[in-house]
Amino acid sequence: MTIAERPIVIEVTQREYKPNANQLLKELISNRYCQGLLRFFVVHPNGRFSKLAIIHALDENGTRPEVERDLEKLVNDGVIKTSVANGIRYYLLTEDEPTRHLVLNLAEFDWRQWQRLDHYYIADRRIPA
Asked: d(Cα 82, Cα 76) in Å, to the nearest integer?
C-alpha cells in the first residue's frame, strides 16, 4: 500500500438484540422503574426528553441510579430510542411499530390489570424451567 492509497475500512455493526414480545413483557412488568418509564412515555408518546427531565419526572426518594439504569436498559431493548440534537441526547418512544403498539396497549391497563400481570409473571418466574 502506498501513501496515496486509501485504506479499506470495514464497518462491523453489532447485531442488535431484540427480545420477543413475551420476553419483553416479562422484563417490563417485573421492574417497577421500567413500568414508571413506560407510563411516562405512554403519556407523552410523541415527545422527546433529556435524561434530566425524565429523572426529575420519575425520581422518588433518591431513586435516580435505578431510573438511569433502567432507562439505558429500555434503550438497549429497543423500547426507547435516542437522538442527539445540539449535543444533547434525547429519549423518545421507539418508532418500531410492534414494540410501540405493545407499549401503548399497556397504557390502557387499569391498576387491577397491572396487578394481575405482575402476579402472573412473578408466579411464572418461580416455576423452574
From this structure: 10
Tell me, what DSSP letter sits at residue 10?
-
Residue pLDDT, tens place only, 52-95: 999 988 877 778 888 899 999 999 988 999 999 999 999 999 99
Q: Tell me the three cell numbers of residue 123.
A: 408466579
* The C-alpha cell that represents 41 in the structure block: 412515555
pTM, to two decimals: 0.68
Structural domains of the chain ordered from first start: 21-123 (1.10.10.10)
Instruction: Please report, in angstroms and rounded to a whole number, the separation of the first and last CA atoms in the chain.
Output: 56
Distance CA 42, CA 40 (A): 5
